[in-house]
Amino acid sequence: LASVRADAAARTADGGRDRRTIPLASVRADASARTAVDPAAAGAPPRSFDPSTLDVRHFINLKNGVEAIPTLRAVGIDDYAFVRIQSTLCEVGDMEKMLLELDANLLVSLALGYSCVVYDYGSRDKKRGVPRSLWYGLEFTRFALNRYWFAGTSTGEAAEAGSTNHQSPVLRGKRVDADFRRKLSSLSKSAKKRIKYYRKFVPPEVLDAYPGVRLVGAYAATAKDDDEGFYAETLRRWCAPTTAASTTAVSTAVSTAVSTMEAKVSPPRTEAEVAAALEGVGLSMFYGGEHDEEWTNRWVHHREATTAAAEA
Predict the structure, then answer these.
(1) Is it the case that residue 183 has pLDDT exceeding 60?
(2) How far apart are CA 64 and CA 44, in angstroms?
(3) How far apart are alpha carbons 197 and 199 in whole angstroms?
């Protein structure tokens, strides 16, 4: 564990650059609305999203994200809130209901310019564990908020026109601008009104300095997806008000977590520090579909193989 902490500290000192890109799971979408992404053209996140300067707010996605709570406590993170982004809604394409269920704390934090990290655990991708709530839910949420909050800016115009710049939404290595625009246009008047309500909280300096919301995922694989009792017990153990009967158990759990890390650690504050701490204890980061090299590389390799076959 000492080596883990040293490695995390080294990555933090280096500005958090040692970040991994992650693969995305499958998605049902109209293939005709998609354009393959060339990773060489998918540049780094905009400069104003410097992870070494962005302050972070943390959100546990119910219910599987509850499994991350003991790990977060172990690295000094205990100021989290809760959100519910349902993978099942993403799977059936009910994006309006998904947006309507977004927590007000999350939307206000995004409007103010915080980097918001959403924690979830996945069970379908056995190799990596990235859940659909992140690779689909966060991608659509980011697109929708950029469209309705940053209208008139380069980000809002990109969301409106489906630009192929770094704001373009990507699922499984393919651009889905047209598909996402259709989903936005089909939203009810009340849903659009709710999203636009939070636009008033975007400070002028955020409009000038942050071209869009900063929404990041953190994940790991789980084998407890169907264990409802596990999630309820974990949530009660770590988050319920302590009573005389439970104080000892919770104090023991916290002491164990702290001693496991050998000393009480200072909570990571910036996105770079958070990413380093999380990766040091086994979680992976999700920065958006366009920075998912494995999937974008698959399409490049497929295109190269197709071209070679045609030339032969």
Answers:
(1) yes
(2) 30
(3) 6
- Token pair recorded at residue 139: 């991608």
The rounded Cα 99 to chain-centroid distance in angstroms is 15
Write out pLDDT tens, residues 99-141.
999 999 999 999 999 999 999 998 766 566 689 999 999 999 9
Q: What is the DSSP letter of 183?
A: H
Beta bridge partners of 285: 218
| Residue whose structure tokens are 């689909």 | 136
How confident is the prediction for the chain on average, in pLDDT? 76
> Which residues lie below 8 Å from residue 82, measured CB to CB, with a gap of 6+?
59, 60, 61, 62, 103
Structure tokens at 244: 């005389």
Residue type, 34: R
Distance from C-alpha of 82 to C-alpha of 110, rounded to nearest angstrom? 14
Contact 215, 141 (CB under 8 A): yes
pLDDT above 70 covers a percentage of the chain that reads 62
The pLDDT of residue 215 is above 80:
yes
Give every CB contact of residue 66 below 8 A, 6+ residues apart in sequence.
60, 231, 234, 235
User: What's the angle, vertex CA 123, arms to CA 63 and CA 234, rounded to 5?
Assistant: 35
Does the pTM exceed 0.70? Answer: yes
More confident call, 141 vs 256: 141
* Element containing residue 81 per DSSP (H, E): strand 80-83
